[in-house]
Amino acid sequence: MGFQGRQIAIDGGRTVSAVVAYPEERAPGPATAVILAHGAGNDMRSAFLGAMHEGLAARGYVTVKFNFPYTEIGRRAPDPAPVLEACYTRVLDSVRRDPEIGARRVVIGGKSLGGRMATHLAAAGAEVAGVLLLGYPLHAPGKMDKPRVAHLPKIRAPMLFFAGTRDPLCNLELLQRTLQPLPARIDLHIIDGGDHSFNVPKSMKRAPTSAMRVAPRATAIPLIDGGSL
Asked: Which end of the chain, N or C, is less packed with Cβ atoms under 10 Å?
């Protein structure tokens, strides 16, 4: 596996950092690249995103992770959604044009906020092969009456959700009700006991981060063959 750091130009003459992970051997089928965006409270160096980034590359996919503008300059408060979406769009365009990556298919997604921004791009009509959602922030803590779902019916690309049963930002029953009528193909992978970052309690007699290590293996399975997510 090889890694290459780079700077991607975004609006206003600025750049954001990205890291491309190249697999030793490509997965069978059409060349697929996966783009991962970080959550609100971390940047692309988070252990969670790193595990997904390396795990997917180990399974044969060129995988790209990147910073949003606010984390690139060390701020804690996320940028407004239009700024995040514009940045993600620039990253997607860069990956598509890159001859070294050579992707015929691109899957977009990310952790929490990053995944939600990917759904905004897909709902706006971005041509992607699928959307990978790692702990989708369905609602704010304690605010199940205000789910972030109005745009989801516009998505036609397949979506793969990973959700923990203890996630305070994603009530599992509400998520299942939300996904059931959507027109896109939906796959839901449930992490028993997992919280928003898929950590499980010690009482379950598993390592707290075991689910995070399982996620890249499970994620890779439906990406193979180029037929769907």
From this structure: N
